[in-house]
Protein: Topo IIA-type catalytic domain-containing protein
Organism: Coprococcus comes
Amino acid sequence: MKEQISYYENDVERRKKLKMFEERLEILEALLWAVKHFNQIMFLTTTAENVADAKKQLEDKYRFNKMQAEMIVNMRISRFTKETMEDLEKEVEECQNKVDFYKQLISKSEL
């Protein structure tokens, strides 16, 4: 019985971590895209009526979800640097590795 509980707790914890890393990866990918497409983001935000309109345009035109659009609109200009892009690329890779790891762990535990 203790083993079953421990297994269940581990599985629940793995799924929580997987979800957390998947959500973080989703945000990182959006931020990285924004940094790489700085001119498009600047044009969109400077021509938008307001912040809500900018978010809506990001969602409609580029298919970002609400959280991604929020994070992009809230980026500071200082974040649009080569260093930031490199940092984001590195974090995306690390996060993707963690997502893959937890997916693999979960799929093995389901066998």
User: Anything to note?
Assistant: The radius of gyration is 18 Å. The chain has one domain: 2-109. The chain is about 85% helix and 0% strand. Residues 2-109 form a domain with the Topoisomerase; domain 3 fold (CATH 1.10.268.10).
